[in-house]
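Holo prediction. Input below; ligand is uracil.
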Amino acid sequence: MQEYAQWRDVARPLLSADVAPENMEWRLGQRFEPLQLAMPEATRLRLSRRLIELLETISCYRHDGRWDLMYRLAWRSLRQPHLLEDAADLDVHRAMQMENAVNREVHKMHAFVRFREMTDENGVKKYFAWFEPTHEILRLGVPFFCKRFPNMDWMIATPDGAALWQDGELQFVETPDKSLLPKADAHEGLWRTYYRNICNVSRINPPAMRREMPQRYWRNLPESVEIQTLLRDGQANFEQRQKEALDMELAKARAMQRALADLPDYTGGPAACRRCDIWRHATQAVLGEGSTSAVIMLVGEQPGDEEDLRGRPFVGPAGRVLNAAIKDASLERSELYITNAVKHFKWQPRGKRRLHKRPEAAEIAACNHWLDAEISQVKPRIIVALGASALRAIAGRTDSIESARQLHIPHASGAQIVCTYHPSAILRADPTNAEQLRTHLVGDLRRARELAA
Ligand code: URA
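Structure of the complex:
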């Protein structure tokens, strides 16, 4: 925040003098010195309250590029007053991601700060906490503790500085020597017993727990010794629950197949579909699978060789890339509904192998019959188009994925479409490009998750 105030003092005259972002560079590590620019009468800057709040928040994001981005946003907002409403704009999108990350970290601080009691030489009790946030959020996070513990004297120390609350007044001070802070107190045993008792092992979800309470916080939590034992016991329960959930999803998927087959006009379901000719050389129709109440639906192109044999979408090499991306985007495959634009495998022989052949527009259009039925059964709020065939099927558009990623495309059902690269594009790309495409795929899935939230 102090750095934010310094940045603001430098940025204001530059904005008034209309210095374009490309003509300057903000360097981290140096102190921003207020500029004495010889300027015409300084114009009053009209920055919206929302923009100022956003800038303050993202100034806490630990990344060298934040100052440049903040200046660019401010400079562009003066020309485009509605800039922040354009979530597809790359600067706005990045800023929102940074804002979310900072807010999440503040939330973690509220949840994971643990005070340890110390009695000073006059017998007065004081409370100390050590916290290591990913971003520089001490000033944003600390007002919560001032309200919550107004009558205690406490300090929250981080590697970036410390907040000291004494006699009802807040000060920011240098980080004290960490070795002088208490590592445990007399209440630790009580706290651990309490934690053991309230924790219901049969309901622990280890991946969600690690996601919500990342391991880097554990070393400052007195209950972490208990968490490790509880997690071990919880893992077995979790696997059993997952198996039951998967069985239930398979049963639901079968019910979906039956439901589709029972619709007038849909006799026999996709297995009996003769709307185009692809079925002739395929082993079976591959319908979608996953949660039939999913908020996010992923749509690929068509089943591949392995999918055709196993009757399930995305279980071959592209599926493995997709699974890893889903995980990196902090999503769970079982929470999604995953399907394809085309339900049969179209291929051409190459020696003994069956090589994927891209479906034609007419074949995609013929299969829309089934995709539409799936969309109206699942009613997702977000539909992720994986690649160009999916985009064509869902939105009837032929944009490149690169440009479609930046667009806001609504689906006729009211769902929002997020467009991204197909996992097979990553498998085909050279290593440098592949890494970039993978980053985009994960980023777009994260965006879908954020929109769904
Ligand atoms: N590619 C797809 O588009 N879908 C699959 O199910 C597998 C590979």
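The chain has a mean pLDDT of 87. That is the main takeaway for now.
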